[in-house]
Amino acid sequence: MTKNTFRGPPDVTLVQRAHRRRFNGALLAGAFSLFALGVAWYEVHGPKARPADELPIMQARADDASQPAHGAMMPAVAAAAGVGGNELVRRGEYLTRVGDCAACHTADKSRPFAGGLPIDTPFGTIVTPNITPDADTGIGQWSDADFLRAMHEGIGKGGERLYPAFPYAEYTRVTEQDVLAIRAYLNTLAPIHFTPPANNLKFPFNQRWLMTFWNMFNFTEGRFVPDPKQSAEWNRGAYLVQGLAHCEECHTPRNVTQGLKSSARFSGAVQAGWHAFNITPDKISGVGEWRDDELVAYLSTGAAAGRANAAGPMGEVVADSTQYLTPVDLRSIVVYLRSVPPVSGGEARPRHQWGNPADDVTALRGAAISGVNGAQLFVANCASCHSWTGQGVGASAPGAYPSLIHNSTVGASSADNLAQIILHGVRRTTTHADVLMPAFGKQLTDAQVAAIANYVTRQFGNPESTVTAERVAGLRP
To answer: Which positions bind heme c 1 (predicted)?
Structure first.
């Protein structure tokens, strides 16, 4: 006798799970197909397939007989034209200064251009590579084509996508001739055998192929094309600012992908805890009230009397780069910056218009030290150089101790830069002056640094700008 087994309806939950697995599999396959199509499209229509748009930058030259030729020729062309290699190397050295290459590629001054500098990003730490001509650890085995591809397309010798901490999004605008001049100069450096530490990026940002998608949204490959409607001086400034000088990298805020926010160009941004201020011609938030000669003085010396004194990353830019620019290039940069759209940051008054001399020092005489008192700490640590009135010493003479009144750092809407200066000091060496302010980070607590900063902004600057001890702790190394 056969036993009949009754089978009831299948478990509904199991059926739903099976359907869900099939749906997820189809969704994954579809996503992968879209990804493959995207990569294929980019490889066909991306940088390699773009038409060459490079025009001789000679069209953008300012009319100055003393200015070196802007756009050094390739070695073979140079030889045919009777131009010596020394001129090419000199031009490359100048352009390397314009690009401030040493700032990122030098972690140890005893190893110039050997890399190793850690750059903190929201996605982890990127360490700069060795760009000396060492054959094993540097770029000694790179061809000119490899170097051009890295600068113009953000692709390394091995075909790997470079991270945008290397500003190829700006360097792509530099003419081939100028890129090869830089290469010629780098070839003359002493080879340094040094392998920098590896990057430390979080997953999935350590996957370089993802840069394909970043490039789709944030990168347009192509050389600078002079605007025939603009003057030669304007074009020269645009070429420098948009290209080698890569000013937007610090002075333009970033979008969610960490690309530059084109709608707010040059309106200011935060880099490594430092505020790179608004440099648009807005008269309140930017530099619209600055005279041309003040902007040139700031770029060439790091100081503009009654306006600002460069510190932090900008102090390094002045010391390593902009102080070496020719007067023609400095004027051209100013002309171009005057033309960009002004962007308001919402400030009530310009940063340099705040402050009055202090008159409270007499009230402190004989007062007992109790707790953390900003005024007492200022007199004890700062007044010997900046005067107890805050008016500084030496007026606008080279090497003067700057006034804290009418000072853009003290009058800023954020006290972060002021706290950074107290913590880390200032060291800015130029042909104009050797400026030194000691760092107080090891001598003062977070609460004491905050107290001094808040006293200085309240008395000499923007009284609404304050900083907490917790914030100071976050600004320490």
So the answer is: 101, 104-105
